[in-house]
Design brief:
With about 240 residues, the protein is mainly α. About 65% of the residues lie in helices and about 5% in strands.
Amino acid sequence: MDGMHGQTDHKEKISDNVWQINEFSRKVDVHYNTIDRWFVRLEKNGIHYVNRVQPSDKKVYDQLDYEIALYIKEYRDKGWMLDPIFETLPNEFDLRPFPEGEEVSSTKIFDSSAAFKEMEEKIIANLKDEIVDQARLQVKQEFQQSFNELIEMKEQILKSLPEPEDKAAVREKRFVEAVTFHRVRAELEKEAAAEWAKKSENERTKRVGIFFKTEDTAKRADYIKDYVNEKYEERLKEKFDL
């Protein structure tokens, strides 16, 4: 293994650059329960002591603890067991001894209220993280559902709309319609004129003076107009197959 990873004077006052367990675990990028187990075990084995702040007796972690945690993480990732890693720590770090009068024992009596408070804070922090994650997941799912509904609604609207027509095709269609309208009217006027011609002379003519008769053009025009108006709509339906 490499040489000394970090040196620190444990006899000095606690540095301002310290972290509580949750912030420290995020810095190391290891779950705080795992971090806590590592350092509890180091203390139980009398290897390394974690500083506390008073009067709460809450653990705080400094740069030395950070380097030790990274070291443990590195060799855990390589597949090492904890005991062999812990055995190498005295050769790699200037470990922090226990304060004077502090017993090194797995049966050490802790301040129950402080321990309970620290445990409570860990649980609350964990619950907060879980609630935030759950809320984010729920918002993401609701957003995705709303987005999918909008996409589906858009597709339904597009399906209900008529297909867009080509401008050239529209112009051609209108031209054909105009020609058809004109032809239908011309056909009906021709038919009306033929029907008018079949009428008797008395119906078609009017007397001019005593001896002369002439075609009643006004009457003829009215007849043709009425004939066209009567049959125009039906004839258009026939032409357009309606």
